[in-house]
Amino acid sequence: MSLPKIDEITMLSKSELEDEIFNVKKELFRLRLRRGTKQSFKSHQLKHSKHRLAQLLMIKNRDI
């Protein structure tokens, strides 16, 4: 599985961008909770989610 591509993000509207940021933050919380409670999860998902969040925030801040 490769890292998320930024091309997909640049085509989103502002409301879609905000929704995606919210969803990624929720996913990161869920993954951190699973890691903290010693439940099984795919560790690469943490890296991919953090990378995706950084991309989303960069596009959001660029448009301001």
Automatic annotation (TrEMBL):
Its main location: plastid. Pfam families: Ribosomal_L29. It comes from the Eukaryota. One of its GO terms (cellular component) is ribonucleoprotein complex. Gene3D superfamilies: 1.10.287.310. GO terms for biological process: translation. Belongs to the universal ribosomal protein uL29 family. This is Large ribosomal subunit protein uL29c.
